[in-house]
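INFO worker-7 received task bundle
INFO bundle size: 2
INFO processing item 0
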Amino acid sequence: MSEVEAILPAVKLLGVGIAAIMLARLLKTSPIVTFIAAGLLIGPFGLGVIEENGTTRLLAQLGVVFLLFDIGLGFSLKTVRESKRDLIGLAPVQMILCTAGFGLAGWLAGMDWLLALLIGAAAGISATAVVTQTLAERGIATCPLGRSATAVLVFQDIAGIFLLVIAVALSEGGGGDLGAILGMSALKALLAVGAALLAGRFVIGPLFRLLSKTRNDEIFTAAALFLVLATAAATGALELSLTLGAFLAGMIIADTPFKTVIRTEAKPFGALLLGFFFITVGMALDWRMMVEQAHWILAALAVLFVLKTALTWAAAIINRWSLAGGAQLGFALAQGSEFGLVILALPGIAAALGAELTGILVAASALSLALTPAWASLGLRIARRIADATASRKPVSAPEEMNCPVLIFAMTPSGRMAYSALTRFDIPVIAIESDPDRFLSAIADGFAVTFGDPSDTRLLRAIDVTEARALAICAPRYEISAEITPYIRENFPELERFVAVTDEADRRRHEALGMHAILNRSQPEGLDFALALLRYAEIPESDIHEWMQDVIEAYAPDPAFRVAEPA
């Protein structure tokens, strides 16, 4: 093979990838869908522009490697501590129910029981890139529902790593003893994880601190790429998947101060290479078969959406979620995933399923990614109807176990951000809303909120404001603030009052009433107000900075995998 023949497939893939991203922006859909469609068009079953060879396979594999590296960067001991309730409760139950439900469906459809369970587990995993973008666009990335959905995605990603290890072992294990194959793979994976943790603590962290002193960005980027590829090669040499090594490389860096800069440097490579992988998935599809089997593709799509929504909803109810919040979570996580497509693309798995069934499942998964925004919007409407039917509008009172809560009046964007920030640091909150639409929307998004009018002094007495740490008013009306100020000064002189305002004149008027008026200038809306409350609560600046970075990152997911332009 000449040098030109070796590099030409990469050039073609790059051109097709650029066109696919531009088309996705134009159609406001996930580029994953346009990547697969592009592969279908240019592949051997289409125009025959590109044939699969060693170059295309290598680029596709590197795309998956960088995907897993980015997932590893998002996983750290801090993540486990902050989301332990969802990671040990909601997420495992969701995966177990989905694996059992889809596995049973596959077995009834004639699959071998082990293959059915593998496909069922893959179906239980949701698309991290698509879901995080959907949450960000709806402004709920940091609300209780958004945080729980993110925790479930983290758990699914980790489960997907080991699912890939198992799938690769089964795909390449030949006719050996199944128990021995899986047992040896599990032992090797545990050894790899242990070695990665030790390397991160005693080698990688000190090495990156040393490299940072050179103040040379090129060395830093090269070291990060070396770590990704070296760990991937190491796990590959152990006859595990390359992706496990990439995940471990990300996990090593996740607990270091260099996480953000490395993610910034590596993400463009990963997004582009992952696009190449999805193009190669499309290249393996036969469009003629898909036209003939369109009814089965739509049936598989309906089963995926409906069954996964129901099973995830059930998992939420088992974990004591409200009916409304569980419904919205189920609809948000109902699509297929990148992991599912990776597993379906494994030669051994594709051969076991057959070309026809593999094509049906891949097409259904790709369609589910494109339809996620519409399906999630349907879930929001259903959740709000459920909230309207089940929400309590009884007068609020402070729970006895709450010690010095912050009272939040109005679940505006500022109120939601304040609620999310305070609960992140285990500061008790009582949220009160008087607007019916905001009240139902907040309940549907997982907030614990009650109905009430902040201008009614009887409400303040019912809450027993003497025990409150602060009052945060997030939908200010100066006339109401002026009206209740004398009552608060007389009866609750120690109560600190914060108010979120939108202009300088309003800020001066509220400050004249003795209130801490916070002018929101930053994005996302409410960030300034939440920061003021955290500082009042004496949260360490380092923790506040870390929280702020997480919020900014949550509302600015990878633009290469944008579902739609932000509203």
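INFO item 0 finished
INFO processing item 1
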Amino acid sequence: MKRRFSPLAALPLLAAALLGGGALLQRTCAPSAVSPAAAATAADAPSEAKVAPSARAKASERRVYAVTLARHVTIGGETFVETHLEGRISFLPIPGTNLCEARLVDPLLDVSGGETPRVADLRRPILLAYDAEGRLEGVRFDTRTDEASRLLLTSLVSATQYTRGKGPTWSADEVDGSGTYRADYERKGERTIERHKRGYLRMHEGLTPLVAEGDLRILVDGKDAVESATAHEVSRTSRKTALGDVAGELRVSLRLVDRAEATRAELSAARALAGAYEEPNMVPPKRERSASRREMDERRAAGHDLDELRAAFAETDGQPRDEVGQRRATLIHTAGALFRVRPEDALEAGKRLAASGVTDAEANFLAGGLAAAGTEEAAHALADALTSPEASIEARRQSAVSLAMMPVADADTAFALSKGAASDDPALRNLSTMALGAAGRTLAASGDVGEGLDPVADLLARYASATDDAERDMLLAALGNSGDPRAFEVIRGALASPRLAPTAAYALRFIAMPAVDTLLHILATTSPNPEVRQATYRAVFFRDATVWLPWLESALAKEKDDQVLEAIRAAIAHMASP
């Protein structure tokens, strides 16, 4: 059994990326006492040298703002994460350094879905680090701060950057928790400045590409210091997840409520943080994620058991749709954490899913929790439920959906999906077939394809004997999930059919053959059907950037169809990321 990174397990991080915001209150915290040359020297020096006070350091002012943050993430149109934060945040520039201390005071936090930050971690001060140009380069955290708190604090401080400039308009490349974007500024009178953000130039490594738009409205005083700021940003992934489109909305507002000259004790305490804090980062260090995940699982699962979670899920029936979505997402992910911490509970959930008498809602909960767990035990529990003669048809459908998202595949899961793909139920047959294609790709990547375990060979045989286009279309999509070179000729032949061509074009995306790029280029430049061109560019999204990126930029100026243009832009944004 081979482990793979679970798409569902990645969704909390994906949701956090959607809410990365813009960068930070540079005008409030920018190290104005440091020259660009001095800042550049400090950036290469050890932490102790970075925080050494300048002989001419000016007195520093602590500015306190009332702050509110609201973020909302949906997956497939259903609420996944809902967060509301209120409190105060103070900013204290540290004279003679490139650092600014930020401290959240009296936070009131309400979180539904996703991981809940620890309030104690939210209250710990953080250090905002700037580059030689005065722009944010990262956030420095206490090593004890949990990942959920890091993500929320980064979103908070990164939503309202103000990079000053001269004249009525100017631009700057800024960085936030998702990547690098171009910020376009415009003065609206003497005291009001607006910033416009339209997408990312580069994404941080490992993050799913986003399409983002946001606006920031800033009110400054006579010395160009921020008095208030209001930010609104909407984001969505430019590639679909197994659960559907992921979209996010972030709103942050700041309003100055207090200001005072910092005391020597406050400045000394702020400087002392730098010696113990981590280096600047805009995303949590990868080395910490495994341990952090285990800790979060244990904390989330504490005090819960399977029966209590099942009962709580059942109680959501009849509640308003938006409330049901939030509550059920929370319960499913709590179950996933429980199953990772206690594998025996995952096996018990599988037995209940495979038994008769399970309601549709409970089948959704049990299968969703097992998918969220992403473990070998969970995969085998789903396979058992899919093949159980006592399981309801809905339980088997939910099991097939969840297996499609699992990071593991072996003979047991492939056999279960093959049985589901032979079902008399059209929905189960379709869902299992799609999952078989994905399983074939996982097995090939791990080198586990062999005699008696070759889902792609079975899919190709089914395609050869298919008698209608609806069946062929489903099988083409499944073959596209596999990325197997053996499917190339079948897919190329399907391009001649107007009914099958869009599915066939997209099905080319994972096949690692030079002939695929040639064929995609022909489709993009010669097909009169915008649906085919759109599917082609959606496939190009997954191809080699060195081959496609220069050509895509020229294609952008020639294409006229709006949906095709959107697919081209998504591919360019993805390929331009690190």
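INFO item 1 finished
INFO post-check item 1: Residues 8-285 form a domain with the Lipovitellin-phosvitin complex; beta-sheet shell regions fold (CATH 2.30.230).
INFO post-check item 1: The two ends are 31 Å apart (CA to CA).
INFO worker-7 idle
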